[in-house]
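Q: My labmate handed me this sequence with no annotations at all. I'd like to see what the chain might look like in three dimensions before we decide whether it's worth expressing. Could you predict it?
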Amino acid sequence: MSETSKPFTIDVASLRSRSKDSSPQAVEKADSAGVKHGFVNREPKKQRGRRPSPRTGQVHAKVLPAIADAIADEAKRRGVQQGVVIEEAWALYCGQKGLRG
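A: Here is what I predict for the chain of 101 residues:
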């Protein structure tokens, strides 16, 4: 059997790559054809997952171990996060000092 009689052989050396037309007109043409055939928008969608918390400011306060334990115990007793206890303590402090906080 000769090379030309094999029906499923490909001459890899004869293959060439072509650059894709990325002009605005070509992109618009492809987008409109896609919409016509029922394809969805290619624009990135909103990020999925949890919404960002309004409490984004991280405060890494170094406190004495007894104070850390007291804050943790109070938060656990009330069923809130430790940050809530710290925010309330800061509000009380600002109220006593006449500060805006």
